[in-house]
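User: Run a structure prediction on this.
Assistant: Running it now.
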Amino acid sequence: MSAEASRDNRVTIWAVVPAAGSGSRMQATLPKQYLQLAGKPVIEHALSALYAVPRIAGVVVAVAEADTAWVAVAGRFAGRRLDQVGGGAQRCQSVLNALEHLSATAAETDWVLVHDAARPCVRPADIDRLIDACLSGTDGGLLGMPVCDTMKRVGPAGDVTATVDREGLWHALTPQMFRIGQLRTALQQGIRAEIPLTDEASAMEAAGFTPCMVQGRRDNIKITVASDLALAAFYLEKQGA
């Protein structure tokens, strides 16, 4: 991948999309990132949103070794700066593989946006606001939404054990944006320490960083179960309108 890119104060920004998951909860024949949504695979919508942000220099997608659907999607982005790497058994390993690939040409201080392949409704305007917030700080950040529902803690038997104070609680979304070198080191340390790394921010937090939270839109949903596809189609239609 060429380092010739649009720059913001001489800072280069890349994107990584981990797409090696099987999406078993969907109970579909294809991984969820390849299911059809408004006439396109889910991942194509996610990539299109990233490419709609001029400050992003290029994208690295981590796919499973046995993935046969990616080639067709990649072909629809011919002429774009798009690289492919092998994915890992877990999301954090896929992201780490992509960062190690980027490190061959990118600077340690370059920034990377990590975005879920199954978040097709992210708005380029939200990505731009996240970039602006992160470039004005030092530890990076992520899109999120404050929790508005009453939160319950539930035990193994399905019984409610407590009502959790929702003050200060946020839903973590993507993209999440950090410096390449810092995120790579944080992921390596977290994996070695066997820390549960559910997103990139959790790795950075474990490494002692304090990411900032940038409020995004509620329509930036993640496709997890079959009913999410209909909701995402509705959101995309409204965005287009």
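Residues 31 and 146 are 29 Å apart (CA to CA).
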